[in-house]
Amino acid sequence: MIKIISFLLFLALSATCFAGVISVVGPGTSPAVADTFTINIQGTGIVDLYAFQFDLSFDPTLLAANATTQGTLLAGSGGFLPGVIDNISGDITFIADTLSGLVSGVTGDGTLAAISFTALAPGTSAITLNNFIFLDSNLTDITETIENGIVTVAEIAMPEPPAVLLFCVGLLPFISKRRLLIRISQSFRTTGSSDEAPA
Fold first, then answer.
1. How far is CA 147 from its chain centroid?
2. pLDDT at 78 (0 to 100)
3. Region at 152 (left for phi over 0; alpha for psi -120 to 50; beta for the rest)
4. What tens digit of pLDDT does each residue of 134-168 get?
């Protein structure tokens, strides 16, 4: 009896140890406002994955979702669903994929899905996976570790004006006055002094 309990405990611990990791992987560098970039949902150490589903949330004041495409992990399955994008609430609901037929699930590493975004404003947005379900080839739940992520949209850097430009801008009032003085002087040269005594 003790041996049976020990064996079952070993199986439970083994299942925990071999649980895969699902992580949100952002761009390598911070995007600027108006940049388009991709967020990958990466699977690492996946064992016998047959189907999955998840929702994704983000800050709609900073990001706008454009499209969701199938990842490499279940590529060619024919069962990919890109989900429904709502850029008002900041959600993509029911991103899903499934294999078909009586086949084993996929084991290994790869992306589950890739989501294209456009940066709207500077700031940091959490990228969070919700309502996730992972099934093996027996359509039994798989427990995966979820690692959410963030995306930071860079502040807009305003370049410093060149020193020469600042110097010229500073001279503008003086240049205008000089031109005015030249015009008055040229007028006096052709018509005579304004202080000339009457005949």
1. 16
2. 83
3. beta
4. 999 999 999 999 999 999 999 876 666 566 555 55
pTM reported for the whole predicted model: 0.70
Say which range, 16-25, 83-92, 132-141, has the weakest mean pLDDT.
16-25
Q: What is the pLDDT of residue 11?
A: 37
127 closest CA partner among 192, 57, 194, 174: 57
C-alpha distance from residue 122 to each of 33, 66, 116, 127, 128 (Å): 7, 18, 17, 15, 19
Q: For 75-87, what is the mean pLDDT?
A: 92
Amino acid at 16: T
> Per mean pLDDT, which range of 46-50, 76-80, 87-91, 172-176 is the poorest?
172-176
Contacting residues for 94 by C-beta, under 8 A, at least 6 apart: 53, 55, 81, 83, 84
For the residues of the chain, what is the DSSP string, one character each? -HHHHHHHHHHHHHHHHT--EEEEE--SSPPPTT-EEEEEEEEEEEEEE-EEEEEEE--TTTEEEEEEEE-STTTT-S--B--EEETTTTEEEEEEEE--SS-PPEEEEEEEEEEEEEE-SSEEEEEEEEEEEEE-TTS-B---EEE-EEEEEPPPPPPPPPHHHHHHHHHHHHHHHHHHHHHHHHHHHHH--TTPPP-
Q: Tell me how long the chain is.
A: 199
Tokens standing for 193? 């002094």
User: So what's the pLDDT on residue 12?
Assistant: 41
